[in-house]
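Quick one:
INPUT:
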């Protein structure tokens, strides 16, 4: 079905049982970003499906970032006419538009809004951000909350946001945009980080995870056009120091291969683009099984860890029509990489890229974080001392950049000397965002001035080099994410 207007919603339903349900006029599900982004989000699909299993095909709503108005492919009714609102939010930064759009739609007084239930990755890492807009909250696996879900939504197992608000207010000193950058706040920050991690351990709900979620519909207007997305695993077996996901103690579970195959069968009759969603590469037997069952599928991986590859993996990758391999060395400094929790060497990265090139894959996207560098002195220090000394000097950042460019040169020259092919390297640069949920929460956030200077230096350095390009994560978005992660919501009202 094709809808007219600003927004394109053309879609193919995988689950006809949901398509055939009448769209509810009392339950909605919001993804607080565009249809393009929301329709590619597996968390959103999973909540939508679980509401449908409980007999409600929720009307889907998205947000137009220009007008901050809600729009829906399912209904012409206004959002405010619904009684129950469910929100699936994956990124803290979407909170700002969500809050503005809700106020625009329903007025400033949140106490008269319909009942709002919220969950998603951003809620797990920063629950304190959402208590002002939602009434009920899910922490952890959504299946727990939808199991035995009350008829007509009259009973449920979600947490009351008032309880969560009290938990954090009782124990935390709030920060503001100025105090968060002050060294004297070390103890407050440490306290914040500890309380958040304890909260997650005690309030997180885990279900017996046997059945993976997958796309209910596909669309050419999604961020991943016409991709059928399927969960391969949940959680992560690693705990990289900069990552919230790996540091909250979420257990890692691999779904049974037969359940994965069963689900892919549903999507495969509609599309050959299959997106495998997992934080770590599954065992090679999983991929071999998927390839033998779906020989024409174009498999896409959400992430590849250098230390998870072996020769069998490379062989199979070369048969998968993969155009670009994405890897995340994070830093060109081996010592820092190991401290981060990425226990692989420069030599392993180069060897892997060389093997891909030999197997016909020539393009690579490499993710790097800047703002991680320890001085030799600082390496010996405790957390507390590191914080006291954690004003990363401009020199340290610039030497990090030198190392990064040298590393890219080393990759290209090594691979070229052994294969006579110069690999294409796209570099993606991100500032380190030290969130309270990370292991390295005590790091300072890079200043705008240094980040912008770094951008200029890198652009200048790669200008004359062949087959390299670079993109930079927006400083503004990174700063927003940093402030929100520490509960600083002052910018919500602007
Ligand atoms: S960065 Fe990736 S591998 Fe590391 S903990 Fe996070 S999800 Fe896991």
């Amino acid at each position: 079905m094709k809808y007219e207007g600003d927004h394109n919603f053309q879609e193919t339903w995988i689950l006809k049982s949901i398509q055939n349900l009448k769209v509810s006029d009392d339950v909605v599900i919001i993804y607080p970003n565009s249809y393009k982004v929301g329709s590619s989000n597996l968390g959103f699909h999973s909540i939508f499906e679980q509401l449908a299993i409980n007999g409600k095909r929720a009307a889907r709503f998205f947000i137009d970032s220009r007008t901050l108005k809600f729009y829906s492919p399912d209904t012409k009714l206004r959002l405010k006419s619904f009684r129950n609102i469910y929100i699936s939010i994956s990124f803290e930064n979407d909170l700002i538009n969500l809050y503005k759009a809700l106020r625009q739609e329903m007025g400033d007084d949140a106490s008269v809004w319909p009942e709002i239930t919220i969950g998603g990755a951003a809620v797990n890492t920063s629950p304190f951000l959402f208590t002002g807009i939602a009434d009920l909250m899910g922490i952890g696996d959504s299946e727990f909350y939808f199991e035995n879900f009350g008829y007509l939504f009259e009973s449920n197992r979600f947490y009351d946001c008032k309880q969560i608000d009290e938990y954090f207010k009782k124990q935390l000193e709030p920060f503001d945009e100025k105090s968060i950058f002050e060294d004297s706040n070390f103890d407050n920050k440490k306290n914040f980080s500890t309380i958040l991690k304890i909260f997650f351990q005690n309030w997180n709900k885990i279900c017996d995870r046997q059945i993976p979620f997958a796309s209910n519909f596909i669309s050419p207007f999604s961020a991943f056009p016409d991709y059928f997305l399927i969960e391969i695993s949940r959680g992560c077996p690693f705990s990289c120091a900069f990552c919230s996901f790996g540091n909250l103690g979420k257990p890692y579970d691999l779904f049974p291969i037969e359940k994965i195959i069963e689900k892919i069968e549903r999507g495969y009759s509609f599309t050959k683009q299959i997106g495998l969603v997992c934080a770590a590469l599954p065992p090679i037997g999983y991929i071999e099984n998927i390839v033998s069952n779906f020989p024409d599928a174009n498999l896409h991986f959400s992430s590849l860890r250098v230390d998870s590859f072996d020769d069998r993996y490379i062989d199979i990758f070369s048969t998968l029509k993969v155009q670009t391999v994405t890897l995340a060395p994070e830093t060109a400094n081996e010592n820092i990489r190991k401290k981060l929790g990425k226990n692989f060497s420069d030599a392993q990265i180069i060897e892997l890229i060389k093997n891909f090139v030999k197997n016909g894959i020539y393009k690579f996207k490499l993710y790097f974080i800047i703002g991680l560098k320890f001085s030799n002195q600082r390496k010996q220090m405790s957390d507390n001392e590191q914080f006291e000394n954690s004003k990363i000097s401009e020199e340290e950042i610039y030497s990090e950049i030198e190392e990064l460019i040298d590393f890219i040169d080393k990759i290209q020259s090594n691979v070229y000397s052994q294969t006579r092919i110069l690999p294409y390297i796209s570099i993606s640069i991100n500032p380190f965002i030290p969130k309270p949920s990370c292991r390295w929460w005590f790091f300072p956030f890079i200043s705008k001035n240094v980040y912008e200077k770094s951008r200029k230096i890198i652009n200048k350095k790669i200008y004359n080099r062949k087959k390299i390009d670079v993109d930079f994560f927006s400083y503004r978005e990174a700063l927003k994410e940093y402030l929100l992660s520490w509960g600083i919501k002052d910018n919500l009202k602007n």
